[in-house]
Amino acid sequence: MQYVLGLDFGGTKLAAGLIDSSGRLIEFRRCPTDPSAGPAGAISAVQRLVDSFTTRVRPAGVGISFGGPIDQARTRTLLSHHGPGWEEYPLVEHIGRLWPGPVVMENDANAAALGEFCFGAGRGYRNLLYVTVSTGIGGGVIINGELYRGSRGLSGEIGHTIVVPSGPLCPCGKQGCLEAVASGPSIARHYAGRSGLDPTTVTAEEVFQQAERGNPLARETLEWSINLLGIGLANAINLLDPDVVIIGGGVSRAGDRLFAPLRAAVAAAAAPSPPGAVPILPAALGDAVGVLGAAALVLSTSAARQQSAQTGQDPSDP
Ligand SMILES: [Zn+2]
């Protein structure tokens, strides 16, 4: 049995997992991120997580899910929104010194899309749109069973598609992005603004709870945010015609309180098609999505290599 190591360098959590070639998670450890510790501190913390595994095997490769933009060669991180020191940081090289063998890296949304496709809610589909609704909104696209990265590795950035012209300011500097109206903090901020509350004291989950208790401002806030999320998804569905849309991230934990109105909003906004044509499903991998996605990167790369060895073709050669 072959084992791979999946590492998840998230903004708030670091995680490490040992995964077998069938996608079974053998070991999984997490710890909070200390943003002030920088890359060296994060690598030491991840190494301690792996050292605490009870299964002692040599991984055949390492996959990295990184919570921020990475360079086109996928060897360096460009920045982290959570702390300094990640600018042009050769993370793949440093990880390769600790665990010799192939090391591959992707941004977290792409890794999560691949993880759900290989091991989660996307199993059995060929064309998939994955969207994480969390502190921000990100996405990943699988087309014909392969991660679609675009020309500059920027595909899937559904969070920065504009759904409200001249709308609320987004962290990216533009106005009315999907992220600025439907991310967890955006839902909380919108509700706080309407209720005269301090936005730092409210969470999206509390807005869902208030809406369940019949609070009209909470209900209106969710109606507004979820409707706009539905419009954003419908636009993406019209463009990509996926088999399935999978929603992950913290806000997706609201379950049917999110999914029922979201499906209705997508159906109302998408181009006419058979009812229920595109299933909108909750992600299945939970907190382990980063490490499983990272492992899927290694496993899919090695599968491509094996295939090319059989056919005599370089997998990077179109
Ligand atoms: Zn934006």
Helices and strands, in N-to-C order? EEEHEHEHEEEHHHHEHEH
Largest sheet: 5 strands, mixed
* Average pLDDT taken over every residue: 92
Q: Strand order of the main beta sheet, please?
A: 3-2-1-4-5
Strand content: 15-25%
Number of helices: 9
Question: What are the low-pLDDT stretches, counting only 5+ consecutive residues below 50?
Answer: 313-318
CATH architecture heading of the largest domain: 2-Layer Sandwich
| Helix and strand composition category | alpha/beta
List ligands, each type once: zinc ion
How do you describe this structure in short?
This protein is α/β, with parallel strands linked by helices. The chain has helices at residues 38-51, 91-98, 108-119, 179-182, 184-195, 204-212, 216-240, 256-269, 289-311; strands spanning 3-9, 13-20, 25-32, 62-66, 103-107, 128-133, 137-143, 146-148, 244-248, 280-282. The protein has nine helices and ten strands.
Architecture overview:
The chain is of the alpha/beta class and 318 residues long. It folds into 2 domains: 3-108, Nucleotidyltransferase, domain 5 (2-Layer Sandwich), CATH 3.30.420; 121-282, 2-Layer Sandwich (Nucleotidyltransferase, domain 5), CATH 3.30.420.40. The protein has 9 helices and 10 strands. Strands 3-2-1-4-5 form a 5-stranded mixed β-sheet, sandwiched between helices. It has a 5-stranded mixed β-sheet with strand order 8-7-6-9-10, sandwiched between helices. Helix 8 links the parallel strand 9 and strand 10 (280-282). Helix 5 (184-195) packs across helix 6 (204-212) and helix 7 (216-240) packs across helix 8 (256-269). Residues 313-318 have low confidence and may be disordered. The structure holds zinc ion. Residues 160, 170, 172, 174, 177, 179 line the site of zinc ion.
